[in-house]
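Researcher: We are triaging several targets before committing to wet-lab work. For this one, the compound of interest is adenosine-5'-triphosphate. I'm pasting the protein sequence and the ligand SMILES. What I need is the predicted three-dimensional arrangement of the protein with the ligand bound, expressed as structure tokens, so it can go straight into our comparison scripts without reformatting.
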Amino acid sequence: MGEKYKWYLDERILQSQKLASIGELSAGIAHEINNPLAIIRQEAEWLQHILKNKEVLDARGVEELKSGLHQIIQEVDRCKDITHRLLDFARKRKPVIQAVELNKIIEDMALLVEREAKHNNIKIIRQYDANLPLIYSDGPLLRQVVLNLLNNAVHAIQKDGDVTITTCLSEDNTIDLIVSDTGCGIPKEHLDKIFDPFFTTKPEGKGTGLGLSICLGIIQRLGGRISVDSAVGQGTTFTIKLPRQPEAGGKNE
Ligand SMILES: Nc1ncnc2c1ncn2[C@@H]1O[C@H](COP(=O)(O)OP(=O)(O)OP(=O)(O)O)[C@@H](O)[C@H]1O
Ligand SMILES: [Mg+2]
């Protein structure tokens, strides 16, 4: 097979893979947005019905009206949440590389999550390497990643457990960030799906399933790697390896 032809084939395969993932993504979006839309329509019809059949609204009618409107607002907010997260996902802004104190970023996010975690007797254990060197990376993007991981850990524990955050400079000269939890764990058959957009095991209305796919996209753009290790009933560990500085000509698209 000629080199040129092979290249053409590779390109075709890549293109069809891209199309397949666009198809999957669209199906996911349609599904996610369709549910709230159906509820909004149903509530609006019900309100229309109440208003049509009652010239003067009694107390009960007013209550029904209020509850219908509340439901509509809630579902609209859910759609907004989905579209905002999708935009984050799609926008893929170019990383802005600056000196970053990773421990500080993590601590900011830990404090944010800790308040709610404490209520559920979830302890956040810090094992920060005090001598961690500064890294050249994108702080705001890293904050997003850390927050997603901590939220997932806390959700996986639900009640009573530990989230351990470790940072260190590893032997291969990467900066490692490890988030480990004593939560429910991830079944083997889910492990290769958790980074897919819209994959969630959370109940309807609780998770969009975009958290980890956003994390993966960000870490790749920062030139790092993310991996997961989990045992059902015992817990999960996410490990992120970041370069101390982005490679010249790295994946900054
Ligand atoms: N620490 C964890 N322990 C157990 N399961 C996890 C953990 N982190 C992620 N998962 C699994 O991976 C799925 C996908 O996670 P992801 O963060 O992408 O979406 P989500 O948390 O469900 O929703 P969102 O982050 O959009 O609110 C989760 O629904 C859960 O099943
Ligand atoms: Mg999540």
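Researcher: Any quick observations?
Model: The CA atoms of residues 200 and 209 lie 5 Å apart.
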